[in-house]
């Protein structure tokens, strides 16, 4: 009898050893959908027989090194909490901007991470983030392969409002930011047509190296009126003089013009707008000295056209607006999280969870994994053939690409008039 | 028989003469709820037996003088359109910033308006707007009384995101703007706690003469975390040095501080922040020259504390955010519009449609009319006893006042992923 008891205990122990824990962390800039991916990871991990506990590291890879862990199996233990997490903006586990050492110069940090993961019986590590974070995934998975660490699978979960990751049709978080931006443009179109006198509103969007967010403004054009839009993406060279001509031309036949501009527009030589000579010239008018791209354009319109003009910087609002999310984006973000877990459990490592667009109408996607080296440290820009010749608007191809990504609405969960979020840290 | 026919025709004619048309117009700055008031006016006017057609003047009183009218009985002829109008931001009829002549110097404009209204058989004129618009209502109704024009009743419909009208507990439009602002603060609180290093976010709100909008930020404090807020209202003198001390003190015990500031904060002598010597001093650091209040504070934190800091100007977004409205505000705005019609039909003139708060819990209001002269050209500020001694936060009385105004959620109506509005002009 005693012998049998021991055997049973050994079997239990063997079974426990077979099960591994999963660790998930978030990195890079916040988005309104990154917690939907986290929710997808948790939901799938709980389902997987091979996975025991789900842990979260607070503040990204830095939190792994500092061993700041929370038990997510305990913290997110109901469907209601999962739903609340899905609709919580920013990064519930916290984030970091932390660069691991160059692996060729000093690999001790990598071994430190592996030791910590081993100590916690982590067999699966999902790192959700953008470009830099995928670099971390690439390095860590490469290190594990090189050192023969076969019991830790490292998978990347994509995330960025900038939509500039390679190896994926579009990035989780982008759809919600795009929906926020196009919604704001619909609203500003009502605002700008309230008064009769000539009026220009300039809105500056984030994205230093790709104009996807700015392009989303174009989704609103013609939907609730006939105000002309001017859309300047950083994929085409920008000239302040041509901009003024564009505005003048529009104002010749209408009273209101909406301008969408990427923060990173630059001239043919790559100089950002604030570094261009024409924008410096404006100072002689004695106006307030310039800061952002939108402000420079505002001052230029004031000085050279003289009509009513206002600039708006969407700033952080465009990446944390949990009160108006794209349903498509939130669902896909969750699915990509779940897919990351499935890849890890299937024994894959060094991949990013990805999706491919199968068709525009009906809009369908397929989930897969791409080699992380095809993603890390690359940037996907808008194809220039999707931008008009004049460089002040977008072509139908871009609208076709964007439209499915903003479909459906999900909002925050409200309690007593205020949004209510799930806090994990 | 012929005699009878004539009699019938005469009766019909008498009956038609008894019925009058209603004219409604909108004025002043846009809000997200002014069209809910317009919808309330239309809905009630259609119900009233004494009212024949409902007309709208485009671009406020200027549109009346220019006879730019639309027939709203025809344009808004279904419940579905009324619902869409309720959720359309800005002013669907257009607005103006037009000051009528001083009645003592030249009253010809007033007679011109009366002649136009008579020509169109207008018996009821509802003018929706803020302070300046109520001045127009006061002058026009006074003119009618003085000249014995008894067949035109003029009623004001309140509207302003600034919440600074006298004669009413709170202003339509304010609740939705307050909900937007407190929601944004909930979101920024998630955003600011994503990274560990010390971090300050400063948000500048509209309202040159009253701090109600800025105060709304305080509704978010403690709801989704424990980030300390600093709230600066224009009702208390502002000092840049004290502000820096406040931020330093908070940062001594926490990593993140959220600052809400009214655009019009000023020192004890009434000088706006940008006119104060301390803020000019900042230039010696060689930073970008300053523009708005938020930017000045951002530069001050950067120069004197040196931590991560960002300023956000909510700009037009706070007054046209139709994608997140207060249900309470939208309902009350509609009721105030309906109440304006009821007052006019009851033979009143020279009143503003108003509401009184009967109780905080359960929150109940009563609708009434107040003498327009008690409203026009006055400003309601936040009682200083609702602000803390240090002038950097609000007291419970202010929270109690604000809380019912942001209850419930109404969003835009979406079609194919984009908001869909009712256009009237």
UniProtKB/TrEMBL annotation, chains A, B:
Pathway(s) annotated for this protein in UniProt: Carbohydrate degradation; glycolysis; D-glyceraldehyde 3-phosphate and glycerone phosphate from D-glucose: step 3/4
Site (Important for catalytic activity and substrate specificity): residue numbering on this chain: 132
Group of enzyme by EC: transferase
Catalyzed reactions per annotation: beta-D-fructose 6-phosphate + diphosphate = beta-D-fructose 1,6-bisphosphate + phosphate + H(+)
Binding site for substrate: 160-162, 206-208, 263
Names of required cofactors: Mg(2+)
Localization per record: Cytoplasm
Binding site for Mg(2+): 131
Domain Phosphofructokinase: 22-319
The organism's place on the tree of life at top rank: Bacteria
EC number: 2.7.1.90
Site (Important for catalytic activity): 159
Location (main, coarse): cytoplasm
UniProt keyword Transferase present: yes
Residues binding diphosphate: 29
Family: Belongs to the phosphofructokinase type A (PFKA) family. PPi-dependent PFK group II subfamily. Clade 'B2' sub-subfamily.
Subunit-level organization: Homodimer.
Function noted in UniProt: Catalyzes the phosphorylation of D-fructose 6-phosphate, the first committing step of glycolysis. Uses inorganic phosphate (PPi) as phosphoryl donor instead of ATP like common ATP-dependent phosphofructokinases (ATP-PFKs), which renders the reaction reversible, and can thus function both in glycolysis and gluconeogenesis. Consistently, PPi-PFK can replace the enzymes of both the forward (ATP-PFK) and reverse (fructose-bisphosphatase (FBPase)) reactions.
NCBIfam families in UniProt: PRK14072.1
Protein name per Swiss-Prot or TrEMBL: Pyrophosphate--fructose 6-phosphate 1-phosphotransferase
Organism (species): Anaerobutyricum hallii
Record gene name: pfp
């Amino acid at each position: 009898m005693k012998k049998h008891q021991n055997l049973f205990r050994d079997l239990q122990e063997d079974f426990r050893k077979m099960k591994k824990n999963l660790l998930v962390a978030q990195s890079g800039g916040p988005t309104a959908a990154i917690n939907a991916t986290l929710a997808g990871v948790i939901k799938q991990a709980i389902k997987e027989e091979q996975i025991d506990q789900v842990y979260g590291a607070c503040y990204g890879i830095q939190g792994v090194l500092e061993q700041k862990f929370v038990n997510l199996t305990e913290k997110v233990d109901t469907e209601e909490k999962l739903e609340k997490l899905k609709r919580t903006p920013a990064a519930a586990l916290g984030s970091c901007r932390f660069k691991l050492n160059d692996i060729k110069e000093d690999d001790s940090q990598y071994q430190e991470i592996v030791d910590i993961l081993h100590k916690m019986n982590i067999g699966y590590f999902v790192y959700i983030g953008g470009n830099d974070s995928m670099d971390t995934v690439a390095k860590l998975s490469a290190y594990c392969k090189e050192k023969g660490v076969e019991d830790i699978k490292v998978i990347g979960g994509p995330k960025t409002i900038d939509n500039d990751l390679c190896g994926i049709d579009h990035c989780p978080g982008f759809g919600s930011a795009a929906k926020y931006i196009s919604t704001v443009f619909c609203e500003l179109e009502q605002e700008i047509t309230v008064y009769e006198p000539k009026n220009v509103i300039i809105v500056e969007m984030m994205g230093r190296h790709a104009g996807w967010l700015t392009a989303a403004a174009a989704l609103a054009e013609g939907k609730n009126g006939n105000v002309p839009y001017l859309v300047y993406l950083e994929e085409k060279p920008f000239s302040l003089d041509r901009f003024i001509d564009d505005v003048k031309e529009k104002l010749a036949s209408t009273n209101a013009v909406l301008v969408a501009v990427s923060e990173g527009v630059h001239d043919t030589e790559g100089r950002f707008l604030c570094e261009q000579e024409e924008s410096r010239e404006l100072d002689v008018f004695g106006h307030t000295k310039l800061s952002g791209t939108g402000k420079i354009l505002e001052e230029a319109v004031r000085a050279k056209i003289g009509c009513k003009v206002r600039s708006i910087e969407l700033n952080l609002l465009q990446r944390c607006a949990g009160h108006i999310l794209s349903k498509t984006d939130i669902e896909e973000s969750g699915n990509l999280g779940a897919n990351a877990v499935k890849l890890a459990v299937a024994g894959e490592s060094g991949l990013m969870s990805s999706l491919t667009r199968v068709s525009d109408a009906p809009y369908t996607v397929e989930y897969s994994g791409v080699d992380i080296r095809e993603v890390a440290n690359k940037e996907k820009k808008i194809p220039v053939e999707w931008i008009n010749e004049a460089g002040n608007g977008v072509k139908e191809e871009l609208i076709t690409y964007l439209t499915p990504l903003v479909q459906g609405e999900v909002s925050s969960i409200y309690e007593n008039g205020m949004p209510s979020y799930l806090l994990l840290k």
